[in-house]
Amino acid sequence: MRGLRASSLLLCGVVLIQLLAVQIDAQRPKTQWKTLSGFSPRVIARGGFSGLFPDSSLDAYNFAMQTSVLDAVLWCDLQLTKDGAGICFPDLTMSNASNVESVYPKGQSTYPVNGVPTPGWFTIDLSLRALTNVSLIRGILSRSDKFDGNGYTISTVQTVNKEMKPQGFWLNVQHDAFYAQHNLSMSNFLVSVTKTVIVDFISSPEVNFFRKIAGRFGREGPSFVFRFLEKEQFEPTTNRTYGSILSNLTFVKTFASGILVPKSYVLPLDDKQYLLPSTSLVQDAHKAGLEVFVSGFANDVDIAHDYSFDPVSEYLSFMDNGNFSVDGVLSDFPITASASVECFSHVARNATKQVDFLVISKNGASGDYPGCTNLAYEKAINDGADVIDCSVQMSSDGKPFCSSSIDLGNTTMVAQSPLRNRSTSVPEISSVNGIYTFTLTWPEIQTLTPAISNPYSSRFNMFRNPNERNSGKLLSLSEFLNLAKNSTTLSGVLISVENAAYLREMQGLDVVKAVLDALTETGYSNRTTTKVMIQSTNSSVLVDFKKQSQYETVYKVEETIRDILDSAIEDIKTFASAVVIGKSSVFPVVDGFVTGQTNVVERLQKSQLPVYVELFQNEFVSQPFDFFSDATVEINSYVTGPGINGTITEFPFTAARYRRNRCLASKETLSYMAPVQPGGLLEVVSPGSLPPAEAPNPVFTDADVTEPPLPPVTAKAPTPTPGTPSTTAPAPSGQTQLTLSLLLSVFAMVLASLLLM
C-alpha cells in the first residue's frame, strides 16, 4: 500500500510542484498550429510521469496529471494476465520494471514472441491476484532507484481510470498476436472494458489487430492509431517492413485515423547524431487524413547535438518549426512537453521579456563551442546573453587574454602541439603539472587550437558539439572588449580575475593593471552604455580595482555555504556591489536530491546585493532529479523561487528563451511553470531509500572574506638565452628548468653518435 500512501502525499501537496497551482487550458487559436485539426499538439504521458516514478504506477499517472496540460492523455501499455485481466505494464515480460524475479524466482518461462524465443517472466503466467505481491520499480537503470521501495502495485485499466479520471486515455496493444496464441483475446477485453471506461485512443503495431476490432466500438468509439516500429522490422501479419507500409499511407487510412512513429521518421539523424533535413511524413500523412503522433521523447536520453541537450528545443522542432506540427508527442516527462506546447511555442526571439534577470555567459556559449573563443562569444550574443564574460589570463610577455583556465591543457590542444614539453609544476596553483599561460608568449598561445569543454564525457559519455570541438580562436582581452562594444544587444561585460597575487609576486605580471589598461585603450573608461563588472574570489583584487576605477565589482563565493553572517555581508559591501554563489548554496543537494532552500539569496538581497548564481548547464546529469532533467525547470525554480538576479550559464540561449515564455505573463501560476518545492521529492521516497545525512555546509563568515593585500609586482629574473651560462639563483616555482637527466641524455646521444662514426 506504500504506493497509495505516496499518491495521497502527492494529492496533499507534499511534492515537487505546488499542486495547488491553477491549471488553465491555454489552447492556442487554431490558425497558429499546423496540426491536422488545427489545435495544439496533444501531450501523451507514457506510463504517466515515467521519467521520474516507476512506469505505470499510480504516482506516475497522478504526477503526470498534476504537472501537465489539462487535456493530457495517459498512456497505458496494455497487458493481459493469466485470468484475462487487463493491466498497465510497460512490457510483455516483467523482470525489467518490477520485482517479479524476487517474488517468484522460479517463474521464468520461454515463449516465441514474433517468432523469436524469448525468456522472461510473462504476465500470462500470473493471475491478477498473484500480481498483487509484485511491485513496480524503475525500468531504466540510469533513473533514480529511490522510489523502488515504495511498493507500487500493478494497476488494472479500470483502477487507473477510476483513480485518475483522465481527460484522455490511451491503450497501447503491442502484442495482440502473442496473446491470441495463448487463447487470450485483446479485442474481447477492449470491447468489454470500454463499456465502463472511456478510452480515447487504441494503438498497435499489428495490422491484423485493427481488422479484428474494426466496427466493434461504434461511431463514438476510440481513435485507432497504427504504430510504426523501426523501418527495417517486419509487421507480423502482412510480412512487410514498416518502411514499406509507410509508403502507402492510404492503406493505413483504411483502418486507422492516425499513426505513431519514432522521432527519426520525421527528423532523421546522421551517424554523428546531427539532424538531417526533415522528411515530408507529417505533410504526407495530413494529406491522407492521418494524425501524426511521435514517440521517444525523454529528457534523460541523448538527443541530436543541434539541440544543445535542451529537450524544449527538441519538442519545438517537431511542433513549431514553421513547416509542420505533429499532432501529439509521447513523453516520459510530460511537464516539459506541456511547457513546450503552452509556454514556448510561437514565441519570437524578439518577444517581450516576461521576467527580468541577467543572462551572463560562462566563457561565452561554451556548451556549444570551445570556451572564450570568438565563436563562443558570438553565439552567446546571438542567443540573447545580456553579459558576456572573460576569464583573464596572462601570457609570459604580459598580454591579457580570455581563457577559462590558467592551464592551457584544459582549454586547448597544447598537449598535441610542439609546445607540449613546456609543462611545469606550480604547487601554488595546482598539485599536478600543467602548461601555464604565463610560460608561453601571446604569439605562441595564438598558434594553439582551442578545445571544447566536455565535463561529462568520462563518466557519462556525453560530448558537446563534436563537429565544432576545435573551432574558433582565442581572443585577447582587447579583442573581447571590442567584440562586446560592437554589439547592440549586450548590456555589459564581466571580467574575471584570479591568481593576481601569484602573478605579481612570482611571475612579475600585474593582471590588475593589464585589465585597466585594456579597458582604457578600448574606450570603456569613458563608456556609459556598456556596464563593466570585475569579478574575483579574492577580496583584495576587488579592493585594488575599486581604488583605481569606478567599475562594478562582483565578489564570488567559491565555497558551498548554508548561510552567511551579517558581518560578512557588511565586509563584502565595502568592496563589491554584487555576489556570485553556486547553485548548491541556494538549493542544497544530497545524492541527487534537493534537500531544502537556504536563505543566502534573501539575506544578500536585503542588503542590496544582487545575487548571480552559477553554473547552469543543459546536460540533465548536471541537475538534481527534482528538476526533471530539464534545464528550463531548473532555471524557473531559481528565478521564481528564491528570485535570483542572474544566471551564469554555458548555454545562454536556454536562459534567454525562458524569459520570453508567455506562461510567465499568466495571472495564475500554471502547474507546468511552477517552481519545485525544495525537499518535496524526498517526501515521496520510502524511508529505507533515503540518502544518508551529510555534514551541513559551512556558514560564511567575515574571516572567509578577509584576504591579505595584493603584493607589489616583483620583477622576474630574465630567462637565460640559449648557450649563455646562468649565474642567477635557481628558477622560481613555475619556470621550466633544464634538468640533469635531460643533460645526461643529450650527452649520451652525442657520445653514441661519435662511437658510430
Give the secondary structure arrangement, pairings included.
Blueprint: H1 2-12, E1 42-46, H2 58-67, E2 73-80, E3 86-88, H3 100-103, E4 109-113, E5 116-120, H4 128-131, E6 135-136, E7 152-153, H5 157-164, E8 168-172, H6 176-181, H7 186-193, E9 201-204, H8 207-213, E10 223-227, E11 234-235, E12 240-241, H9 242-246, H10 249-253, E13 258-262, H11 281-287, E14 291-297, H12 311-319, E15 328-331, H13 334-344, E16 358-361, H14 374-382, E17 387-394, E18 400-402, H15 442-446, H16 457-460, H17 477-485, E19 492-497, H18 500-507, H19 511-521, E20 531-536, H20 539-548, E21 552-556, E22 563-564, H21 566-573, E23 578-582, E24 589-590, E25 593-594, H22 600-606, E26 611-616, H23 631-640, E27 646-649, H24 652-660, E28 699-700, H25 702-705, H26 740-756
Parallel strand pairs: 1-2, 1-15, 2-8, 8-9, 9-10, 10-13, 13-14, 14-15, 16-27, 17-19, 19-20, 20-21, 21-23, 22-28, 23-26, 26-27
Antiparallel strand pairs: 2-3, 4-5, 6-7, 11-12, 17-18, 24-25
Helix pairs in contact: 1-2, 12-13
Task: Provide a compact summary of the structure.
This protein has 757 residues and is α/β, with parallel strands linked by helices. 27% of the residues lie in helices and 16% in strands.
- Could you name the CATH topology of the largest domain? TIM Barrel
The total strand number stands at 28
End-to-end CA span: 90 Å
Our count of domains comes out at 2
Q: At the fourth CATH level, what is the homologous superfamily of the largest domain?
A: Phosphatidylinositol (PI) phosphodiesterase
User: Under the CATH scheme, which class of the largest domain?
Assistant: Alpha Beta
- Mean pLDDT score: 90
Overall shape: elongated
Q: What is the topology, as strand order, of the major beta sheet?
A: 16-27-26-23-21-20-19-17-18
GO biological process, one term: lipid metabolic process
EC number: 3.1.4.46
Pfam family, one: GDPD
Keywords: Glycerol metabolism, Glycoprotein, Hydrolase, Signal
